[in-house]
Write a structure and sequence with these properties.
This protein has two helices and seven strands, in the order ββαββαβββ. By secondary structure, the chain is mainly beta. The chain has a single domain, classed as MM3350-like (Structural Genomics Hypothetical 15.5 Kd Protein In mrcA-pckA Intergenic Region, Chain A, Roll).
């Protein structure tokens, strides 16, 4: 594997579109060479979503203030589009802006990222990205229980 720097990111949902209004956060260590599409897949796996909707990444002072869009096109579940070639080291530093991940244009799941400044040295034997801590209530992508009725 090529040399990389580890970023420590705190990730949390700023909005839960289900009636639960649950909030969750985690801290991850992730290589700076990971693409935004790989970050999308990691989040989908971490929160146990079905990866069945379009997504995008942008930066702003808050979730409603888009100062920087990383692509004019959306990413798709099986095709990250432009997000496959944009790495975290292309994104950071953001100079006063925060990174946001917007998933599912109907439900409007929004996740905010805070990059910690402390440098972390990759350790042999560990697989990255990896979850360092996970707090809060498990998010449910859909507002229904797993049953045969669905929506």
């Amino acid at each position: 594997m090529e040399n990389f720097e580890l970023y420590t990111l705190k990730i949390f949902n700023t909005w839960d579109p289900t009636d639960d209004k649950n909030f969750w956060e985690c801290v991850v260590e992730i290589p700076d060479i990971c693409s935004l599409y790989q970050l999308h897949l990691f989040i989908q796996d971490t929160v146990d979503f079905e990866n069945d909707h379009m997504f995008e990444f942008y930066a702003g002072r808050n979730e409603d203030n888009r100062k920087l869009e990383f692509s004019q096109n959306s990413g798709y579940p099986d095709d990250g589009g432009d997000y496959e070639t944009i790495t975290l080291k292309d994104v950071y530093p953001l100079k006063g802006l925060k990174l946001y991940y917007f998933f599912d244009y109907g439900a409007n799941w929004i996740f905010e990222f805070h990059k910690k400044r402390k440098k972390v040295i990759p350790q042999k034997g560990l697989i990255y990205p990896r979850i360092v801590s996970d707090n809060g209530i498990k998010l449910r992508q859909y507002d229904y229980e797993d049953d045969d009725e669905g929506y």
